[in-house]
Amino acid sequence: FEQLLSSHWGYTDVSDILVSMARQFALIGLSQVFPDALARELTTAAFEGQLRRGGLQPRKDDLQRLYRAFRVRDGAVSLEGFKDQILAPHPETPPPGGARDLDLA
User: Fold this and answer.
1) What are the φ/ψ torsions at residue 78 (nearest 5 degrees)?
2) Mean pLDDT of the chain, nearest integer
3) CB 75 within 8 A of CB 44
């Protein structure tokens, strides 16, 4: 949907262009590291192996946090959830001092 809107009306700011490009580059990178696997689940060993083949060597504790965040049945890693989080991240905690109260009155 977002791509349809931007292709029709363009972007309002350079930062919007860069965010869109970053998402596209991330998708290209994901498809290189996980060819034919983005719509399925991988074992933790296969997930780590694919990352290493792609040139990424996260620390063991970082891998464990990823496993916990994206684990599905039988300990497999959900690549769909992983991809969604990379392309449209949702912060785990609110930014300090950046939240504003909503005046709903």
Assistant:
1) -80, 110
2) 78
3) yes
